[in-house]
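Bumping my old thread because nobody answered last time. Still need a sequence for this structure:
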């Protein structure tokens, strides 16, 4: 079988089923993990979805499972941000530096990046994060300490924060998050 390392254009994928946050699909390239996403019910039937035997996929699945079980606080994986803008890459790097179990606001990330007026742009970059869980966009909330949004659905954001022992009063955008928002820089 050809490995993603043998062909620069290849993208391999696999799925991790029955996790705390549903079925997770992972795509990898020779440069690293390219995308993490959730699979809707019924999408993995038939030949369209399968688990590809690949070292990077296996390692990624293992680390995600360890994280979801509360046994891993950070990831040791090569990440492939091909296609991301330079601004998005800055935001993703900043997201990756948010400590396990802590939350920050979109506004604080904007200030930390040197442009306090770019909170909306930060929010758009966070929404475009191709690697949820690995690049912990679930740790970003509104500046008023409320949950805000999440591309994978608020029930998943609440579950991921719960893994990290962050309490959320419910899965609505207006739900309060505890502990309070951390101020940057960390």
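Sorry it took so long. Here it is:
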């Amino acid at each position: 079988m050809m490995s993603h390392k043998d062909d620069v254009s290849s993208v391999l994928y696999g799925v991790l089923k029955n996790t705390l946050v549903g079925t997770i699909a992972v795509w990898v390239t020779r440069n690293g993990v390219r995308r993490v996403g959730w699979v809707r019910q019924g999408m993995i039937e038939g030949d369209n979805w399968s688990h590809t035997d690949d070292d990077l996929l296996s390692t990624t699945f293992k680390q995600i499972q360890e994280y979801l079980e509360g046994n891993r606080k950070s990831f040791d994986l090569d990440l492939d941000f091909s296609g991301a803008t330079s601004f998005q890459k800055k935001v993703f790097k900043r997201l990756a530096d948010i400590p396990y179990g802590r939350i920050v606001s979109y506004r604080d990330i904007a200030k930390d990046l040197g442009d306090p007026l770019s909170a909306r742009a930060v929010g758009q970059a966070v929404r475009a994060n191709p690697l949820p869980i690995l690049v912990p966009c679930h740790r970003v909330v509104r500046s008023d300490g409320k949950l805000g949004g999440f591309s994978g659905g608020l029930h998943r954001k609440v579950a991921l924060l719960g893994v990290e022992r962050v309490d959320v009063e419910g899965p609505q955008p207006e739900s309060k998050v505890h502990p309070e928002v951390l101020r940057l820089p960390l």
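The chain has two domains: 12-68, 86-178. Let me know if any region looks off to you.
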